[in-house]
Structures are given as structure tokens and as C-alpha cells.
Design a protein that fits this description.
The complex is a heterodimer of chains A (269) and B (136). Helices cover 38% and strands 25% of the residues of chain A. Chain A is of the alpha/beta class and 269 residues long. Chain A has one domain: Rossmann fold (3-Layer(aba) Sandwich), CATH 3.40.50. The chains are: A alpha/beta (269), B mainly alpha (136). The structure holds adenosine-5'-triphosphate and magnesium ion.
């Protein structure tokens, strides 16, 4: 009995373990017009398996922050831990990144795009094919593997991007406005699809968006940033139950949460 | 009148196309998207991999186009140079056949030249089409 209790305690601890911990993070760009402070004293914790959305005025440093979490850019000061270890260079085993729409390689087919991260690491051909096909199926694009990006719709392209981000099975997925270029309807569908994929794969997601509706619909928790230099000025728990449905958007709770975030952003600008 | 030798032909051909090559190389490098480089880096690509997996395929259509255009310049350039300033080479032969009304030889020469030029042009165009179906 004692033993069992310990195990479940451990499980509990694991479920609440932090996937990403950022502490005292500041960043200053050395631009042509001198020093530009972009981020100031950012502290945040993203629990494992959580869906965290970051919103904030344009130019407040959301992309910069994400780049640093991905190890693609070094911060001026502060620390970023991912799975308990500092991240200072890209590490595809720990973090996958999904960029904006045009980031697929146009000279590769959908399947080859998804295989790209594996081929960079010289994974065997068989395994690459197998995993890429599994990802293609996960994002609902069976039969489209042979198409080139210009032969796919915007929504399909982002499905491929998501598949590419997931193919190495990293515990964390960073997404920088992945649906910004899509029309309203496709965007809603893609948000819903992302939640399905998220719940099937149990990833930790950090998602940047300008759409407050999207933020509330997707998130467990929304972080609001101030205008430049970006700081985190509010943390909003999204208490809506899961799985989320489109009908929830019409509820009072949804409206109040959205309104609260909007007020914070207005104050911040 | 002084003829042009092989070395001079090469030098002349290089000179007549060097500017085209420089300009389109610049355009080719510019055509590489920063996002694509970032994507590759985020998946742990080394510098060499970024070069071969992103730069080369991004630039390929530009490089082939440059090859094709500069070869056209080379062909005409060298031909004209041979006609007027050389005692050897097909250009010179054609010029002298023309002056001596040796019609069969003249036509054969011209057709041969045209055939070579067209074959080259079409080969590179075919390659270009294959490498750049993705350019819309
Ligand atoms: N490489 C750079 N050099 C200098 N300044 C930069 C650089 N990259 C970004 N900045 C500046 O840092 C600030 C934050 O940029 P960042 O792209 O992170 O903002 P963002 O929140 O993602 O904006 P948006 O919502 O428009 O995408 C901006 O003011 C930008 O001008
Ligand atoms: Mg941005």
C-alpha cells in the first residue's frame, strides 16, 4: 500500500512538472538606432502537458521570446530551462517549432518536408517514411504526401508544418502565429484540429497569437504581455471545460475571459 | 589582323558574362528565405547542412537560368569575335564560306551551330523546369 501511494504521488508530481521555466529573462537588441530593450524580466512556468497562449501588442517581443525558448537566439540575461536543463542551442529532441505559413520548403513534397528533421539527423530511410506517414495521418492528410506546398491550401500547409514539428516527438511544441495567414473559417477549424492533435499526443504547447478568441478557445492559460519592452502583466486561467466546442464561444464565461484579456492589452499599449 | 586563340576565347567569354553571373548570384542569395534557414537550424542542421539543404535548392533555379543566359551571350560573343578577329573556329569558317559563296558549307555550318545552341538551351530549360516546379 505504502508503495502504491508513493507511485501515485510520483505520477502527480510528474504531471505538474514544469516543461519550461523562464526566470529573470531580459533581452536588448543592439540595433542601428542604439539599444532596443525588447524583453524585461520575464518569468514564467509552463507545466508539462499544458496549452499556454501568449498574447500582447505587436512588437512586444513574443517572437523573440519564442526564439529564445527554441534556442535559436540567445537572451541578454536570465535563464530558460526546458525539461530541467538550460536551452542555449536548438535541441529538436526537446523542442519542436511551428512557424508561420510560408515556412515549408517549396522544393520538397509534403512527405519530404515532414521527413526533413529526421533526414537532418540521418535517420534510416524506412523509419523516416514510416514516421512521416504516421504524422501525415495524425494531421488528417493521408494521400496528400506527394503534393508540393504550392499544391496545398493554406490550412493544409499548416497541417504539414505541425506534422513536421511533431515528427521527432519532442515534448514541447512552440507555435508562432501559425494560423495568422488563414481565413477566419479555416483558422477556427485548424484551432479545433490542433486541440485534437494536442490531446492525442499529450504535448506541451506554447502558442503565440493576436486573436483573443483563438487564445481563449485554445488555452489552459493565457499570458498577457505589455508593449515594448515586453513584460508579463497578467496570467489568465481559462476555466472552460475540455473538450472545447464552438458553442462555448457564445457563452458568458468565454466573453468575460476574452474581455478581461482585452482590457489588459489595452492598458498595456 | 590578328587571330584569337583558345585562351583568348575563354577570356572573352568569361568577360562577356561575368557581370550577368555576379548580378544573378546576388539575386539568388537574396532569394533564400530567412525563415527557411531558421527552420533548418531549429531542427539541428549544421552549417554545412543549411548550405546543402536550404541554400543550394533555393538558389538552383536562379543558377540554371544564369547558366542558360550566359551561355547564349557566350555563344554569340565568341561567334562574332571569331568572324571578325580570328583565323580559326567555326565562326571564322562561316564568315569565309559566306564571302566565297560556298553555300552548302555555309548552310551546314549555320545549321550545326543552331542545333548545338538549341540543344544546349533546351537541356538547361528542361533541367530548370525540373528543379523549379515549386516556383509559382
Ligand atoms: N534582429 C533584431 N534586431 C533589432 N531589433 C529587433 C530584432 N528583432 C526584433 N527586434 C525588435 O524587438 C521588438 C520585438 O520584436 P518581436 O518580433 O519579438 O515582436 P512580436 O511581439 O513578435 O511582434 P509581432 O506581434 O508583430 O509579431 C520589436 O520592437 C522589434 O523591432
Ligand atoms: Mg512575432
Amino acid at each position: 500500500m505504502q508503495h502504491l501511494a508513493n507511485v501515485s504521488e510520483l505520477r502527480g508530481a510528474k504531471a505538474h512538472a514544469a516543461a519550461i521555466e523562464v526566470a529573470g529573462l531580459s533581452h536588448v537588441y543592439a540595433g542601428r538606432e542604439g539599444q532596443v530593450p525588447a524583453l524585461e524580466d520575464i518569468a514564467l512556468t509552463v507545466g508539462a502537458g499544458r496549452f499556454v497562449v501568449i498574447v500582447g501588442p505587436s512588437g512586444c517581443g513574443k517572437t523573440s521570446l519564442l526564439m529564445m525558448m527554441a534556442g535559436l537566439r540567445n537572451q541578454t540575461s536570465g535563464t530558460i530551462l526546458c525539461a530541467g536543463r538550460p536551452i542555449d542551442a536548438p535541441d529538436p529532441d526537446r523542442v519542436g517549432v511551428v512557424f508561420q505559413e510560408a515556412s515549408l520548403f517549396p522544393w520538397l513534397t509534403a512527405l519530404d518536408n515532414i521527413e526533413f528533421p529526421l533526414s537532418i539527423r540521418h535517420a534510416p530511410r524506412e523509419e523516416r517514411r514510416r514516421r512521416a506517414n504516421a504524422m501525415l495521418e495524425l494531421v488528417g492528410l493521408q494521400g496528400f504526401g506527394g503534393r508540393y506546398p504550392h499544391e496545398l491550401s493554406g490550412g493544409m500547409k499548416q497541417r504539414v508544418s505541425i506534422a513536421r514539428g511533431l515528427v521527432q516527438d519532442p515534448p514541447v511544441l512552440l507555435m508562432d502565429e501559425p494560423f495568422a495567414a488563414l481565413d477566419e473559417q479555416t483558422r477556427m477549424t485548424m484551432g479545433h484540429e490542433l486541440l485534437r492533435i494536442w490531446s492525442q499526443t499529450a504535448k506541451t504547447v506554447v502558442f503565440v497569437t493576436h486573436s483573443l478568441t483563438e487564445a481563449v478557445y485554445l488555452a489552459d492559460e493565457v499570458l498577457v504581455m505589455s508593449a515594448r519592452p515586453g513584460r508579463i502583466i497578467d496570467r489568465v486561467d481559462i476555466t472552460l471545460p475540455r473538450p472545447r466546442t464552438y458553442e462555448m464561444m457564445a457563452t458568458d464565461v468565454f466573453g468575460r475571459l476574452r474581455e478581461r484579456i482585452w482590457q489588459q492589452i489595452r492598458k498595456a499599449t | 589582323m590578328f587571330g584569337i586563340g583558345f585562351g583568348q576565347k575563354v577570356a572573352y567569354a568569361a568577360f562577356s558574362t561575368i557581370f550577368i553571373v555576379i548580378m544573378s548570384a546576388a539575386a539568388a542569395v537574396e532569394s533564400v528565405k530567412a525563415d527557411h534557414v531558421l527552420v533548418a537550424r531549429s531542427y539541428g542542421a549544421t552549417r554545412a547542412q543549411v548550405l546543402t539543404r536550404v541554400y543550394v535548392p533555393s538558389m538552383m533555379p536562379f543558377l540554371l537560368e544564369t547558366l542558360r543566359i550566359s551561355m547564349i551571350f557566350n555563344f554569340t560573343g565568341v561567334m562574332i569575335a571569331e568572324m571578325y578577329a580570328s583565323r580559326t573556329g567555326i565562326g571564322h569558317l562561316i564568315a569565309s564560306w559566306g564571302e566565297n559563296f560556298q553555300m552548302p558549307q555555309l548552310f551546314a555550318g549555320v545549321i550545326l551551330l543552331a542545333a548545338v545552341a538549341i540543344a544546349f538551351n533546351e537541356t538547361v530549360r528542361w533541367l530548370e523546369a525540373r528543379c523549379s516546379t515549386w516556383r509559382t
